[in-house]
Amino acid sequence: MHGFLNINKPQGYTSYDVIRKLKKVFPPKTKLGHLGTLDPMAAGVLPLAIGKATRLIEYLDDTKEYLAEMKLGASSDTQDAWGDISYSGNVNFSMNELRKILDSFRGIIKQLPPMYSAVHHEGKRLYELARQGVSVERQEREVEITLLDLLDVDLSHELPRLQIKVICSRGTYIRTLCNDIGERLGTGAFMSALLRTRTGEFALNDAVSIDELQGNRNNIEKFLLPVDYPLGHLPKIMLKSKEETIAVLNGNRIVYDSIIPPGKARIYSPERELIAIAGIQFNGEKALIKPLKVFN
Prior knowledge:
Mean pLDDT: 90
Strand content: 35-45%
Helix content: 10-25%
Number of helices: 6
Distance between the termini: 14 Å
Shape: globular
Number of domains: 3
CATH class of the largest domain: Alpha Beta
CATH topology of the largest domain: Pseudouridine synthase
Number of strands: 18
CATH superfamily of the largest domain: Pseudouridine synthase
CATH architecture of the largest domain: 2-Layer Sandwich
């Protein structure tokens, strides 16, 4: 069994919890892998790769889309509502200042991974060290925020609440973004809710629940998306002969006589079966297909 599942992860589950529960739905020894860790406090899209689809994870579009709520006037040691909250006593801010601060977080920015994260440090996860009361020096990482929209401002609560929409690159910590916005604003802030609405081609509207999958364990195929479902961002090359197919499956380069941009592409046999991910190179005016990963 091979393909992808678009899971709507409930709050309170780790990404591995989802895999552990769904392993019972598939035949023994079936490979499962998730596309991007989602914190236990967060809910929403968590795609799973099944069988041979796990070999495609590195080639997928990993742009993420989120809806987040943040509270001003306090901060958290985990940067979210599940940590120890410290109140700043300051909830005053101007909308002009807030909008300028949001503007400053759009584009390529640097983030410091939080101590409560799965980043490795000398063989241990940072969250393991944080639970022991240990804090270590971390290196900032570049991430890209392609969209940061302010959706709502609610001043009716003791702690003002902001709702934001974020489209970002892989590795972006939304709770760190909320924390950093609060620091710039001078009020402090922590993430109080997070919903991932999209990962690449996988959208929340099309996601299925764990309960629904467990209740249909004898008909799980109806939820399974094709192996090439999330590869629409890569150009598609249809081979024309059995000889070309054999060459590609053996890892050999072949010449391609149609116009195609350089980069990566998905390669199909004449029978329309995905057989490889390849790099496209040029030798003079000729395009060369160089297999990077083949699927026999």
